[in-house]
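Saturday, quiet lab. Running sequence design on the structure tokens for the scaffold JK sent over.
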């Protein structure tokens, strides 16, 4: 198999709900990062074999294969195809895994992976507004469980014994780290500003400076009257897009490009769909086994902060170093634009690796239905 690399990565700022990006159509927002990716790499989109695009709520603005219409919105040649992937919150991480597999196998040479979600315009759960998405056999198998991620987060907190204080302390940490990273300019190079009718949007909008566990303690539980999960220790509803340029390493060198990171391994696994959000634990074990890299060798872990118990349970089960976990903050502070989040996290992580000379980075995402992706990449010095 061919050595496969990420040559370039770019993202929009992550906009808060009804914030600076809320008036952008998902195809137009995608076009921003698609064109920025080509500009940064200095190549013509003519050589792109395919665009694999993550999106979760594929209704309304985001229906009818948003991946293909994003390519057209970008003004790229009509012969370039696009497809849309839905693996829930891991959609654009799965897009990267599909792109890498295609290049590694020799089926394609240059693939763009990424994703988009404009949750301000296509609300969370819009695709489930009618019908019975799970089916009577699934519901019967799991005791008519509602498959509500908030309830699953409550169950995880209960199983691992996380108090509300512990969850809120972790959430405050996310905001503190994100604010420090933003102030230090850690996100500047990876973000492409978006020009909207109201003016440019150039920075992540979700960070709440000065957040403390004490301030969060006043928020009401969102899913259970006596629960521990609330808006402040959950990921934010957000808008955003991100794109990654994937190709064989020898192809990149022949084009005069300097790769950022080598794709070492990807894994996807299922887990208990009632707990739902614990999949990153076995997915991490699986990807490390495939890569032959030990957890101690990994210098940064991006574990998506869907809810605070998710990275904390992962941390408890793996025994990882908390200092390496989401060092620039996570979705609690920076937002979670569903279909874009996998590519956003990878963009953030590989830039952090390059800035700090970190050899290995591991990214993992919990996903609706109890699945999870994990991806290991290696910095190319």
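Result came back. Writing it out in full:
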């Amino acid at each position: 198999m061919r050595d496969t690399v990420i040559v370039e990565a770019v993202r929009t700022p992550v906009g808060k709900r009804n914030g600076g990006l809320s008036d952008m159509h998902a195809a137009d927002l995608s076009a921003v990062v698609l064109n920025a990716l080509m500009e940064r790499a200095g190549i013509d989109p003519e050589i792109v074999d395919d665009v694999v695009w993550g999106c979760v709520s594929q209704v309304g603005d985001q229906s009818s294969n948003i991946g293909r219409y994003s390519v057209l919105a970008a003004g790229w040649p009509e012969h370039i195809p696009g497809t849309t992937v839905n693996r829930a919150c891991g959609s654009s991480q799965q897009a990267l895994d599909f792109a890498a597999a295609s290049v590694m196998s020799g089926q394609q040479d240059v693939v763009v992976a990424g994703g988009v979600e404009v949750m301000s315009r296509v609300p969370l759960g819009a695709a489930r507004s009618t019908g019975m998405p799970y089916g009577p056999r699934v519901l019967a198998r799991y005791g008519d469980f509602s498959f509500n991620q908030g309830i699953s987060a409550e169950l995880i907190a209960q199983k691992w014994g996380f108090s509300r204080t512990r969850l809120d302390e972790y959430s405050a940490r996310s905001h503190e780290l994100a604010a420090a990273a933003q102030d230090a300019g850690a996100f500047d190079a990876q973000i492409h500003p978006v020009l909207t009718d109201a003016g440019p949007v150039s920075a992540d909008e979700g960070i709440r400076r000065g957040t403390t566990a004490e301030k969060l303690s006043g928020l009401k539980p969102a899913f259970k009257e006596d629960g521990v999960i609330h808006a402040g220790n959950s990921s934010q509803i957000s808008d955003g897009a991100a794109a990654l340029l994937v190709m064989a390493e020898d192809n990149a060198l022949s084009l005069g490009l300097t790769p950022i990171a080598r794709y070492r391994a990807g894994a996807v696994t299922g887990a208990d769909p009632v707990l739902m959000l614990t999949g990153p634990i076995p997915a991490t074990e699986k990807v490390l086994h495939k890569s032959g890299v030990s957890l101690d060798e990994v210098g940064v872990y991006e574990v998506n902060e869907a809810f605070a118990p998710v990275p904390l349970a992962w941390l408890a089960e793996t025994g990882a170093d908390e200092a390496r976990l989401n060092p620039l903050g996570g979705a609690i502070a920076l937002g979670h634009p569903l279909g874009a989040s996998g590519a956003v996290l990878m963009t953030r992580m590989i830039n952090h690796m390059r800035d700090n000379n970190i050899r290995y980075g591991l990214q993992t995402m919990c996903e609706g239905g109890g699945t999870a992706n994990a991806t290991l990449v290696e910095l190319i010095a």
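Notes for JK: The mean pLDDT is 97. The chain has twelve helices and twelve strands. Ask whether to fix the surface positions before the next round.
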